[in-house]
Specification:
The complex is a heterodimer of chains A (264) and B (491). Chain A is α+β, with helices and mostly antiparallel strands and 264 residues long. Chain A contains four helices and 15 strands. Chain A has one domain. In chain A, the strands form four sheets. In chain A, strands 3-4-15-14-13-9 form a six-stranded antiparallel sheet, with no helix packed on it. A four-stranded antiparallel sheet of chain A has the order 6-5-7-8, with no helix packed on it. In chain A, strands 1-2-10 form a three-stranded antiparallel sheet, with helices on one face. The radius of gyration of chain A is 17 Å and the shape is globular. With 491 residues, chain B is an alpha+beta fold. Chain B folds into two domains: 279 residues, Neutral Protease, domain 2; 176 residues, Jelly Rolls (Sandwich), CATH 2.60.120.380. Helix content of chain B is 33%, strand content 17%. In chain B, strand 1 and strand 2 form a beta hairpin. In chain B, helix 3 packs across helix 4 and helix 4 packs across helix 8. The longest helix of chain B is centred in the N-terminal third of the chain and has 20 residues. The chains are: A alpha+beta (264), B alpha+beta (491). At the A-B interface, helix 2 of A face helix 1 of B.
Chain lengths: 264, 491
């Protein structure tokens, strides 16, 4: 059954690529190690017909390992800067630590980052969301996280957000693969056992959640792309202390700020 | 969760990162995790009188200790307290509980190196109070050192002495664990350290504080490790080891678990073997009892349970209304789902809780129900999951109905039974709705089942009826369902 999900997904991507590109050099699966990576043409049109339905593998294990909840928290997403370079605040506290609420689910739209009211278990069966936030974990709706096809790639180190004006060549897009093919939890190597998510390299942990400044390109299920950077996990002033001195401020943690902009 | 629970959560996560560190807090190297002494700090040492512990501290700078010295011996009182407390807990773990002593670092190339256990007094950020860091291992085990908050005043502890007894004995037990080598699961590591501190000094309130982390999440598997920083649940699993002490007095389960860390098997399967050998019971059954005991804490009191149950945090089940119906409850292995519904006192003669599922699903489960009076008195009923129904009678003046499902499986994924609760008539209807249509056909074998003989009433406490009371014709159908699904196995 788990294999079925994976196979359907890969097939789906290939179908989409063929429809969009009309040739056979568009998309290929390149699973490697514990991480499944997908080399994709950036311009794949995934709006094109009928992305196949897929069942998310490893649901039971994910619910347990990620402490997924069936309680929706009334958490805010606030726009702090408008298009084209959106900035959003996300209340990702999840009810505290350890969290007692589901992730905050959202989708990227021309009007901004829109909250989607879902609990974690429902989200495993919903294509209506693109990204989920809780504490220091951000998940995309793909792979083991959800039935959609939202994938991400990290741009080269030291890439400036403003310098990304189109999808860079040579990116490797990743679906969510923080559970292995055998449904074992895959941690990110941060040392604190966090899930190895596609966006997980937005932080490191030198004693607090420090920002790397990495810029990601996210490809939505529609095939549209956006660039995304996580600005802070703590309040901006606390984040500055964390980034420079390695000291965190639990009182302001999980107050996440991101900036993002559509690229096409 | 208490403040201290969060504190250790953060610090314990650092332990994982620092386990291979070569440097120490008085000789920080690039990448060293905080806290560590600043370059200008003058770091002094104090050797505790038992010859087991050396305390490293400074009298100035960011990591200054409280320098009061009542006995005017030139050593700050808090430094002496820290060292002597570690030596006291060392002796208790070794001489009373029979654990190995922490491993000596006498053979280490640098740092410490005199064989004494090194304790560094440092100022932690808010939210952390102590840490143990492994530094090296050989075939026999691992050694390391501890860091403890330099000034516990205004850190939320009743007294500075209490703080040292709690944090010091906790971190020293991590050193004991390290002496056995192997990679201990986080839950066992923190849970048994919490248990050890309670054994060391039961007058401390730390245990009662820490187990709140477990009581808040009884639906999480006992062996589900945290993803991300260690959270209160891991510390709170100490409750399970206290439970085992109460059920099997004089056991050596914790020590045997430490001895078995090098084995591939998980700690629950290993505990299953230990329980069988020591007491002839199964972990599956004991997890059902554990679930019952955990319901009877705080102001809720039952005939069976923890000796100090009234001082434990009260479990707060999910509030539901009756009738209640869930077509696919998710109950992870070694966990319990709890529900509570308000009742109108005296309105009904009896209530009923039922599971819907095939034999394989319900076999490891325990159904638990309880009627709670206004004063918190509980009458607890339970039955094996294979009975599928639990009748709570007489309802009397109960003001709450509790329904719970414990999963005693020690491996594998979650169980997904249907759950019904309400009056007998309501539950009858619920069960009929949740049973697969294909299993409802008439004319099948409706005869009696060996599963439901009159001699199998299930366990109960507090008087009243237990499982398998008069439950109506649908129950027979359920029994038939179970038999029918066994047939392919026989074939």
């Amino acid at each position: 059954m788990l294999w079925q999900g994976k196979k359907v997904y890969l097939l789906g991507l290939m179908v989409a690529a063929l429809v969009a590109c009309g040739d056979d050099d568009g998309t290929s699966g390149t699973g490697g190690g514990d991480m499944t990576t997908l080399d994709m043409e950036p311009a794949v049109d995934m709006d094109a017909p009928d992305l196949p339905e897929r069942t998310v593998p490893c649901q039971d294990e994910s619910i347990s390992a990620l402490d997924l909840r069936d309680t929706i928290g009334m958490r805010d997403i606030l726009e702090e800067a408008p298009a084209p370079n959106f900035e959003h605040f996300i209340d990702a506290r999840g009810g505290g630590f350890p969290p007692s609420e589901s992730y905050v689910y959202a989708r990227f739209t021309d009007e901004g980052l829109e909250r989607v009211e879902l609990d974690d278990e429902a989200a495993l069966e919903s294509t209506g969301w693109d990204i989920a936030f809780r504490r220091f974990v951000m998940r995309l709706n793909s792979g083991v996280a959800g039935p959609s096809y939202v994938v991400a790639a990290r741009t080269a180190a030291e890439t400036a957000f403003d310098d990304v004006t189109a999808v860079p060549d040579g990116l490797t897009f990743r679906e969510e693969a923080y559970m292995s093919d055998t449904c074992e939890f895959v941690s990110d190597g941060s040392g604190i056992g966090a899930p190895a998510t596609a966006l997980g390299s937005f932080w490191t942990y030198p004693g607090c959640v420090s920002m790397t400044g990495n810029v990601f390109v996210v490809q939505l299920a529609s095939g549209r792309h956006l660039k995304l950077q996580v600005l802070s996990y703590y309040s901006p002033s606390s984040q500055a202390v964390c980034d420079s001195e390695g000291r965190g401020d639990p009182a302001t943690s999980a107050n996440v700020r991101i900036r993002w902009a559509f690229l096409d | 969760m208490g403040r201290r629970g969060y504190a250790w959560a953060v610090v314990a996560s650092l332990v994982l990162v620092a386990s291979v560190a070569e440097a120490r807090p008085d000789d920080p190297q690039p990448g060293e995790l905080p806290p560590f002494f600043d370059g200008a700090d003058v770091v002094e040492t104090f050797d505790a009188p038992g010859g087991l512990v050396r305390v490293h501290f400074t009298r100035a700078g960011r990591h200054i200790v409280d320098d009061r010295d009542a006995d005017e011996d030139g050593v700050p009182d808090v430094v002496e307290l820290a060292g002597e407390t570690l030596e006291e807990s060392w002796a208790f773990y070794r001489d009373v509980l029979g654990f190995r002593a922490p491993r000596s670092d006498a053979d280490a190339d640098a740092d410490g190196g005199d064989g004494r256990f090194d304790l560094y007094l440092l100022r932690f950020d808010i939210g952390a109070n102590g840490a143990f860091r492994r530094q090296g291992c050989d075939a026999e085990g691992c050694f390391g050192y501890a860091l403890i908050e330099a000034d516990f005043r205004r850190r939320g502890f009743a007294t500075v002495r209490d703080a040292h007894r709690i944090v010091g004995s906790h971190e020293l037990f991590h050193a004991v664990q390290a002496a056995y080598g192997g990679d201990l699961s986080v839950n066992v590591s923190e849970g048994t350290a919490t248990w050890a501190t309670e054994r060391f000094d039961a007058s401390l309130t730390d245990f009662e504080s820490q187990i709140a982390g477990f009581m808040a999440r009884p639906d999480r598997s006992l062996d589900q490790e945290p993803t991300g920083p260690v959270d209160g649940f891991s510390y709170g699993t100490g409750l399970f080891f206290v439970f085992l002490d109460a059920r099997v007095p004089g056991n050596d389960f914790v020590r045997d678990l430490l001895l078995g860390t090098a084995e591939e098997t998980g700690w629950l399967p290993r505990l299953e073997v230990l329980l069988g050998d020591a007491a002839g019971v199964t972990l599956t059954d004991e997890l059902g009892v554990f679930a019952r005991w955990n319901l009877a804490t705080g102001r809720r009191q039952a005939d069976e349970g923890y000796a100090n149950a009234a001082t434990y945090p009260q479990l707060e089940p999910r509030v539901i209304g009756l009738p209640f119906e869930d077509d696919a409850l998710r109950v992870f292995r070694a966990s319990t789902r709890y529900y509570r519904a308000p009742l109108v006192a005296g309105a009904e003669e009896a209530y009923r809780v039922a599971l819907v599922g095939d034999d394989e699903t319900v076999e490891p489960l325990t159904i638990i129900g309880a009627l709670e009076e206004a004063d918190g008195e509980l009458r607890v009923f339970s039955a094996p999951g294979r009975d599928r129904v639990l009748e709570l009678r007489p309802a009397g003046n109960a003001v709450f109905l509790h329904a719970a499902v414990a999963n005693g499986a020690i491996e594998g994924g979650s169980a997904r039974p249907g759950l019904c609760a309400g009056t007998p008539a309501q539950v009858d209807g619920c069960v009929a709705r949740l049973m697969p249509p294909g299993d409802m056909g008439p004319g099948e074998d409706m005869g009696p089942s060996p599963d439901m003989g009159p001699g199998d009433p299930g366990a109960s406490s507090g008087g009243g009826c237990a499982a398998a009371g008069p439950v109506g014709p649908w129950l027979v159908l359920l029994v038939w369902l179970g038999r029918r699904r066994r047939a392919p196995l026989a074939a």
